[in-house]
TrEMBL record:
This is Purine nucleoside permease. The keyword Ribosomal protein does not apply. Gene3D superfamilies: Nucleoside phosphorylase domain. The keyword Lyase does not apply. GO terms for cellular component: endoplasmic reticulum. It comes from Candida tenuis (strain ATCC 10573 / BCRC 21748 / CBS 615 / JCM 9827 / NBRC 10315 / NRRL Y-1498 / VKM Y-70).
Length: 366
């Protein structure tokens, strides 16, 4: 059964017209399999058309009492930020008190995480906004460069950026992240470990990559460039740490957070949303590096069983649902008021006020 908002008698009241649909939690996914991970488990009978959403996903879906809504943005930074902005500007919604659960699958750095793990980020770091030269063209004198990437305004990959666009780093509410982790941990024992093939691949790794899936705190990168291999992941491990002044701990790679977070940040500026009500969750669908026994990263990427696509989707729901439930069930006691935030939240410029413990005083280009 589905009903359009205009056909729903409850929306003829001026109360809703003046205040809009105000879900307690908004689930944001990026593509069809992630959308299905939620739609196959939760019934969303209301379908609301919002101009400006992805042509593939033109509607927002809400549960019967509108306490939970769900939207899919489309993939990549451009689709993610455009769709998010369209949602946040739509007058049918009042999202000023809504919690956002940005969630999807991502690549996993095997020295820090394994496939099927459910990760919650405090930092989202954009790693694509940089200079790049094909590393084969690097003269011999540059043989210690980890890759062909280096920061804007810098002359080498070891130097902190001297120019930023402002979308490179977002820091989120740590207490909210920790509460989400505690909720998700309730389902940790029932996280799937995947097919025998998934397990076999996992067993080829040493360290965290070789362990069973867990719920954990670690950070996510955003890049339209779908990178893989030792050099890129090692470089981004160092880069994320450097650019956040050793505060971020990268474990997963994805393509959207900075796009969606920039839209949320701009709207938080005018109080249409609250930036301390955002949770970023990624479950790991594949390893970004081959195991030690496999030399050829390209062959690994193209031809190996990737590790856990379905597993990551199953665990996305298993890890995410207790978070949604916690928000809805403890709305009056905890969430309506807000989960107290004691760390800095916002971007690299301090656009929402406060001073980040990363970034520089000033840059040559803003
Ligand atoms: C990105 O958005 C465009 C325009 O809405 C859509 O046609 C396309 O399918 C989206 N791409 C992905 C990968 O989501
Ligand atoms: C996304 O955010 C991260 C950290 O929050 C930042 O390092 C990265 O540059 C951002 N990416 C984009 C595309 O804005
Ligand atoms: C972060 O590190 C850079 C480069 O070392 C430094 O210039 C900057 O002041 C540091 N930022 C903070 C907030 O400590
Ligand atoms: C940038 O900061 C440095 C040191 O913090 C200061 O010496 C310089 O004058 C500043 N430049 C501008 C344009 O504000």
């Amino acid at each position: 059964m589905s009903s359009n908002r205009s056909g729903d008698p409850r929306f003829s009241t001026s109360l809703v017209q003046s205040h809009g649909i105000s879900p307690k939690v908004f689930i944001i996914t990026m593509f069809i399999p992630e959308q299905e991970a939620w739609n196959s488990k939760i019934d969303f009978p209301h379908h609301i058309t919002v101009p400006g959403l992805s042509l593939l996903f033109p509607q927002v879906h809400c549960v019967q009492d509108y306490s939970i809504c769900h939207m899919t943005t489309g993939e990549g930074e451009i689709n993610a930020s455009n769709s998010m902005m369209a949602l946040l500007l739509n007058p049918q919604f009042d999202l000023s008190r809504t919690y956002f659960l940005l969630n999807g699958i991502g690549g996993g750095e095997p020295s820090r995480v394994t496939t099927g793990s459910v990760t919650f980020a405090k930092y989202a770091i954009q790693v694509g906004l940089m200079y790049q030269i094909d590393s084969r063209e690097l003269p011999v004198a540059y043989k210690d460069w980890p890759s062909g990437y280096f920061s804007y305004g810098a002359k080498d990959p070891f130097t902190y950026p001297d120019a930023v666009y402002g979308t490179e780093i977002y820091e989120l509410n740590e207490h909210l992240r920790d509460r989400a982790i505690r909720a998700a941990k309730k389902n940790e024992a029932s996280l799937q470990s995947g097919t025998p093939q998934n397990i076999l691949l996992r067993n080829m790794y040493d360290g965290p990559g070789g362990e069973p899936p867990t719920v954990m705190a670690c950070d996510v990168t955003t890049s339209d460039n779908y990178f893989f291999g030792h050099r890129m992941s090692d470089f981004f491990m160092d880069y994320t740490s450097m650019v956040t002044n050793n505060t971020a701990y990268y474990c997963s790679s994805a393509q959207e957070e900075n796009g969606t977070l920039e839209s949320l940040l701009r709207m938080a500026k005018s109080h249409r949303v609250s930036f301390d009500r955002i949770i970023v969750m990624r479950s790991i669908s594949n390893f970004v590096k081959p195991p030690p026994s496999v030399d050829d990263s390209v062959d690994f990427f193209n031809n190996f069983n990737k590790g856990g696509f379905q597993l990551a989707l199953d665990n996305l729901f298993l890890g995410g649902y207790p978070v949604v439930e916690d928000i809805v069930e403890n709305w009056d006691e905890v969430y309506a008021e807000g989960v107290k935030c004691s760390n800095y939240v916002g971007d690299i410029f301090g656009s929402l006020g406060g001073t980040p413990n990363f970034g520089k005083h000033n840059y040559t280009i803003h």
